[in-house]
Amino acid sequence: MYVYNNYDQQIVDERVVQYRDQLNRYMDGKLSDSEFLPLRLQNGLYIQRLAPMLRVAIPYGLFSSEQLRTLARISRDYDKGYAHFSTRQNVQFNWPALEDTPDILAELAKVQMHAIQTSGNCIRNTTTDQFAGVAADEYIDPRPYCELIRQWSTFHPEFAFLPRKFKIAVCGSEKDRAATYMHDIGVEIVKNANDEIGYKVIVGGGLGRTPVIGSVITEFLPEEDLLTYLDAILRVYNQLGRRDNKYKARIKILVRSMGIEAFREQVDVHFADLKGTEATLTTSEIERVKSCFTMPDYPSLDDNDAELALKANVAQDAAFARWVKTNTQPHKVAGFAAVTISLKKQGTAPGDIYDDQMDALADLADQYSFGEIRASHQQNLILADVKKVELYALYQALKSIGLDSANAGTLTDMICCPGGDFCALANAKSIPVADAIMEKFDDLDYLHDLGEIELNISGCMNACGHHHIGNIGILGVDKKGKEFFQVSLGGSQEKAGSLAKILGPAFAADEIPDVIEKILNVFVAKRQEGEKFLETYRRVGIDPFKEAVYG
């Protein structure tokens, strides 16, 4: 993984000193709330419903066991003993005291972490595939390119005060696990007919109040032009994006109003000025960053022997067999597997993990996965390099700390925002709905029979829970001061993606589990052999589901 040089470390350390002075001036009454607002946002600090919230960056979702231990210690010393992993591959602390936030940032800086640009109208944390570098379907490791974008975008003076927040995702595999078409900019790393590396660039995607699937602005951009082309897009957005209405300020609104052809023409004008300038990537710079992401020193393993040992463990433990089916992924190296550690368990908010679990997981990462951990878009954690012969031992260790949920990719592996329990913007409490669904659908055999289903829950139209792209989406709405939930079907984050369609009138919170059951009953009755939920929905349409739910 990328390790800070002296320059990186100096930037982060100095930012802590600057923020500490800014906070002291604010608490002394020398800065007003409005003056302090952009300063705290640029350091990841929100003021939520009940307390401040500090959002910490995990660039492209990759972090070390040492960093995880630091997060555990911070949650224990400065918070309430847990942390929350978000869909942006970030981690959030929901209860820090305002006066402690500089000390927290100082602790983070010691292990090369920070909260810079995790909020505010700037370029946010660049996200990617949680299995980057090890996925069997990967053709290019996207992490070096994410790191190049991170270095280019951090403290970029022109992009510190954009019309609105800006999110970039990068994908380098057959399956899009980064939702590239749902971002302000999506970058798909590709190769042309001459086997040259380049990029398909997608622009103008996003969810929120106006969900939009992004448009391809170029099918193939040469490798060296990545940053200059992104710069050209940002310049057009910075100049032409609306600043009079925050609900119409995202780049998706600009692209839709101009049309992709007119937007492309404006980008090409700026790109002509930037192409070949000092921001153009050189081969040496690309190779320098790639050298930070070399493969671990994998031992040579016989995959057949590993499979035989795994099958023996599976045969003797049905619970382990279920976990292997859902929570392990094929690895490009023989004898290894990637493991998803589900943070979805009844009684715990999706994405939450306790301090003692983080400490234990850091030890397991050292023992089983070269000391590295990944955070996923689905609010789970990943150990990406586990020997197949050690999967059973790892599973037993995870079971001892309550992190053995065998539900990755199933209905109860849901994305869920913090909702009204924490967020001041939310219309409804999403966490209790998630817990009620987990309680109703706790039969793992049934969940595994249903197969892959993406269920996403948002507490308001800002769509932090990505309900628009859930196979089943749930949105909290306000009806005359009461919480209701709107259900939608057919969303997907796959390449080109699809936006879910609203099923009909909203439901009270206590009705949602039964509504989901009726939807699933239609799926089970209508599916053909081997069909996933989304495939059945696309074949039969929304009407059978609507009839079952509303009669």
What is the element layout, followed by pairings?
Blueprint: H1 6-27, H2 33-41, E1 45-47, E2 52-56, E3 62-64, H3 65-78, E4 82-85, E5 91-93, H4 101-110, E6 127-128, H5 143-153, E7 168-171, E8 185-191, E9 197-203, E10 215-222, H6 226-240, H7 251-258, H8 260-274, H9 283-290, H10 303-316, H11 318-327, E11 328-330, E12 336-341, E13 352-354, H12 355-368, E14 372-375, E15 381-387, H13 391-400, E16 415-416, H14 431-440, H15 444-450, E17 455-458, E18 472-479, E19 482-489, E20 501-502, E21 507-508, H16 512-526, H17 533-540, H18 543-550
Parallel strand pairs: 6-7, 7-8, 16-17, 17-18
Antiparallel strand pairs: 1-2, 2-5, 3-14, 4-5, 4-13, 8-9, 9-10, 11-12, 12-15, 14-15, 18-19, 19-20, 19-21
Helix pairs in contact: 1-2, 1-4, 3-12, 6-8, 7-8, 10-11, 16-18
Can you walk me through this structure?
It is a single chain. The chain is globular. The strands form 4 sheets. Strands 16, 17, 18, 19, 20 and 21 form a 6-stranded mixed sheet that branches. A 5-stranded antiparallel sheet has the order 1-2-5-4-13. It has a 5-stranded antiparallel sheet with strand order 3-14-15-12-11. The N and C termini lie far apart (54 Å). The protein contains 18 helices and 21 strands. The protein is α+β, with helices and mostly antiparallel strands. The protein has helices at 6-27, 33-41, 65-78, 101-110, 143-153, 226-240, 251-258, 260-274, 283-290, 303-316, 318-327, 355-368, 391-400, 431-440, 444-450, 512-526, 533-540, 543-550, and strands at 45-47, 52-56, 62-64, 82-85, 91-93, 127-128, 168-171, 185-191, 197-203, 215-222, 328-330, 336-341, 352-354, 372-375, 381-387, 415-416, 455-458, 472-479, 482-489, 501-502, 507-508. α1 (6-27) runs antiparallel to α2, α3 packs antiparallel against α12 and α10 crosses α11.
